[in-house]
Amino acid sequence: MKILVSADMEGATGVTWPADVLPGTPQWERCRSLFTSDVNAAVLGFYDGGADEVLINEAHWTMRNLLLEQLDDRAQMITGRHKSLSMVEGIQHGDVDAVAFIGYHTGAGTEGVLAHTFLANSITGVWLNGVRASEGLLNAHVAAEYGVPVVLVTGDDLTCVDAKGYAPDARTVAVKDYVSRYAAVCRTPARTAADIRAAAKEATALAGRCTPVDGGPFTVELEFDAEHLAAAATVVPGVAPSGERRVDYTSATMYEGIRTFKAVTTIVSSAVEEQYG
User: Fold this and answer.
1) Strands across the sheet with 218-224, in order?
2) Whole-number Å distance between alpha carbons of 159 and 136
3) In whole angstroms, how large is the CA radius of gyration of the chain?
4) How far is CA 46 from CA 4, 133, 196, 205, in A?
5) Which of 158, 157, 198, 194 is nearest to 174 (CA)?
6) Left (φ > 0), alpha (ψ -120 to 50) or beta: where does 113 sit?
7) Is 183 helix (H, G, I), strand (E, B) or coil?
8) How far is CA 91 from the centre of its chain?
9) What's the whole-model pTM score?
10) C-alpha dihedral (138, 141, 71, 24), degrees to nearest 10
11) Number of Cβ within a 10 Å radius of residue 194
12) How far apart are CA 84 and CA 92, in angstroms?
């Protein structure tokens, strides 16, 4: 049994504001250990539950945040950027039996600690076939296309609510409770590690490859906080204006959809000016 762990940082224990997740800041350096603790707790729990292999995919920012030296020696980790499937890299090879979303968060334009979708700012909303989409929802559709169930989600309490919409059977662990975008009621790392480990052990029973879901076509719509960003996005083939500060595109598969999404966000991020966005 092989489990893939997709590890993001905004939903990690103790993380509440930008400096906690911005590489190079003192707060980020401190929070790396908290982030690693959450991921390692999931790894330990999956092995407790009978997993044979756990592969971790770094999914935050530079994708070089987790402390490898603190992880269980049985695990392996994909670290670094520019991967075919970004946050769920590794799911496409036909040997993954389940995926866990650790340290996830709610989507752009919604309530939640450090809520966003791919870009920290600039994107004010994302919709997949008319449904407002978080990174969890987008990645869950990719996983379904490969027949891989989402069995565990951790983050703030609203992230756990969001997860019930795209992975209703998954175990969830709230490591903090939303107060505002930059504030939360946080549990201690000892407590969250114990909760995540116990949930991961239970979640192992949900692992098992499913029939791949052909849910296409997929129409993705994005709304930006400035008109020039929407114009920049249309550089990507197939992306067209759909409204004020909005663009959309349609893909036959979610594999194509998430790769186009990554192209759009890369182009848009390069069009953002420091002071005016």
Assistant:
1) 131-132, 123-128, 218-224, 246-251, 240-243
2) 9
3) 18
4) 10, 28, 10, 9
5) 157
6) beta
7) strand
8) 14
9) 0.98
10) -20
11) 15
12) 9
Whole-Å CA distances, 63 to 66, 71, 221, 240, 269: 8, 16, 26, 30, 17
CB of 154 closer than 8 Å to CB of 37? no
Rounded to an integer, what is the distance from CA 230 to the centroid of its chain? 23
pLDDT in tens, the chain (277 residues): 999 999 999 999 999 999 999 999 999 999 999 999 999 999 999 999 999 999 999 999 999 999 999 999 999 999 999 999 999 999 999 999 999 999 999 999 999 999 999 999 999 999 999 999 999 999 999 999 999 999 999 999 999 999 999 999 999 999 999 999 999 999 999 999 999 999 999 999 999 999 999 999 999 999 999 999 999 999 999 999 999 999 999 999 999 999 999 999 999 999 999 889 9
Cα distance between residue 57 and residue 114, in whole Å: 21
Residues 4-35: b if buried by 16+ CB within 10 A, e if exposed: bbbbbbbbbbbbbbbebbeeeeebbeebbebb
Count each helix (H run) and each strand (E run) in the chain, helices first: 6, 12
What contacts 267, CB < 8 A, 6 or more positions away?
232, 233, 235, 236
- DSSP at 119: B
Helix locations, 117-214, DSSP H:
135-145, 157-166, 189-203
Place of tokens 């709230």: 174
SS3 7: strand
- Angle at the Cα of 264 from the Cα atoms of 258 and 269, rounded to 5 degrees: 125
Query: And the tokens for 66?
Result: 């987790």
